[in-house]
Amino acid sequence: MTSAAPHVSDIEAARARASRRLRLRERAVTLVLAAGFVLVALPLARDAVSDRSPSLWLVAFLIAAYAVASRIEIVVGGALAVPTQLALVPMLFLLPVAKVPLCVAVGLILGALPDVRRGTLPPERLAIVFTRAWHALGPALVLLAAGQPGTGLSHWPVFAAALAAQFGVDFAVRSLRTWIGFGISPLRQRWWLPALYGLDLALAPLGLLVAWWAEDEPWAVVALVPLLAAAAVVARLRPAAPASLARDTKPGEAVRLALAVADELGLHRRDRRDVELTALLHGIGRTRLPRAILDKPGPLTTAEWAIVRTHTVEAEKLLASHGGRLGEVGTYVRACSERWDGAGYPDGLRGRDIPLIARVVAACAAYEAMTSARSYRSALTPNAACEELRLNACSQFDPRVVEALLRAV
C-alpha cells in the first residue's frame, strides 16, 4: 500500500471494515459478486462426493478458528493482513473440500457479527463477506480436480497449484470490486497485495503441518489456538501506527479529542485507529482545491463555495487511489461534512447513515476550529465552544457523540 501523503504508508495499512452504507455502484458490484459466489459454492457443496466425514466438533472448531483469524489484523509490509490461512489450509485437508468455501463464508460472517452488534458495520455490508469468500473456491476446485489428496509432500505440485488458484481468484474478484465499485485500477494494488499474499504464503506450511498432524489425530487442530494467539500478540506488538505519526507531526487537538471520544464510546481498537487516521487526514482534500480560492481574502462566491465543498470527495479519491486501509479511511473522510439532520454534503446522509467514525471526527474538528483563532475571528473559550456543541446536537452533530466529547473536554 502506498501513501496518500508522504510517509503515510508507514503508518496505516489495510483492514477492513467500513461503517457506512454501501453506495449504489458498490452495492451493485457487491451483490453481483456475492450472488456469483453463492451460485457456484452451493451446487459445488451439494453435488461433489467426498469420503471425508469429519465430526461436528471439528467442523465447528475450524469455522470458529477462521472467524477468530479474520479479526486479527497484522501489519505486514505496509498492508493490513489477517492470518486466515492458518485455518483455511486445515479446512481444505480435513473437511470435504467442496464444502470449504461455504465454511469460510460462515466463518467470515461470524467474524463480522461483533462489528454489526456494536453498530460499526451496517448489516447490509455482510454481503461483502461472500465476495471475500471467493478466494476459497480456487484451491477447492484444484484439490477436487486432483482427487482431494492428503497432506503428503509428494503432492506438492497440487499444493502449489491450489495456492496459485487462491491468489488468482482472490486478485480477480478483489480487482473487480475495487475497480467497478471504487474506480481503483488493479495496478494500484500492486503496492500492497504482495504483502497480503506473502503472509498467506508464509502461513500455509504451518496450516499444512496442523492438517498433517490432524489427519490421524483430529484433536491436533487445537494447535491452531497457540498459533492464533501468537498472531494476536504480533498484531498488538505491531499495530498500525497513526499514533506515531501524531507524535511526529503534531496534527492538532482534533486527533487527541477524537481518540478521547472513541474511548468514551468504547470503540474497538481497529475502529479507534480509523478514528485517529480520519481525524489526521480529514482535511487532505483541500490540497486539491485551487490556491486562488483557498487564499482569497474576501468572501467566496456561490460558485467558489461549490468548489470548496468538493474537498471531501477529492480526499476520498486521493485516498482510494492508494487502496488498502487508506481506501477504507477515505469513505470516512468523505462523510466528515455530513450533518445529523441530513443538511450536510456531499451525499446528504442523515443520522446513523453517517459512519460513526465520521460523526466523531466532525464534532471534534468543529470543537478544534471553534477554539482556534482565525484571521477573521478570535477563538471561542472552551465553555462557549461546548455550548455551541450542545446547541447543535441533533441538528449538526450526533447527540451521543456530543455527550462523549463534552465528557472528554
Would you write up a description of this structure?
With 409 residues, this protein is mostly helical. The protein has helices at residues 24-47, 56-69, 85-94, 100-118, 127-132, 137-145, 156-182, 193-216, 224-237, 242-249, 253-265, 269-281, 291-294, 302-308, 311-320, 324-334, 356-370, 382-392, 399-408; strands spanning 74-76, 79-81. The chain has a two-stranded antiparallel ribbon.
What's a quick, concise take on this entry?
The chain contains 19 helices and two strands. It is mostly helical. The two termini are 35 Å apart.
Straight-line N-to-C gap: 35 Å
Outline type: elongated
Give the amount of beta strand, in percent.
under 5%
- Give start-end ranges of low-pLDDT stretches: 1-20, 239-251
- Our Rg estimate from Cα atoms comes to 23 Å
Total beta strand runs: 2
What labels would you give this structure?
single chain; 409 residues; mainly alpha; two-stranded antiparallel ribbon; 61% helix; 1% strand
Reconstruct the topology from this structure.
Elements: H1 24-47, H2 56-69, E1 74-76, E2 79-81, H3 85-94, H4 100-118, H5 127-132, H6 137-145, H7 156-182, H8 193-216, H9 224-237, H10 242-249, H11 253-265, H12 269-281, H13 291-294, H14 302-308, H15 311-320, H16 324-334, H17 356-370, H18 382-392, H19 399-408
Antiparallel strand pairs: 1-2
Helix pairs in contact: 1-7, 2-3, 2-4, 3-8, 6-7, 11-12, 11-17, 11-19, 12-16, 12-17, 15-16, 17-18, 18-19
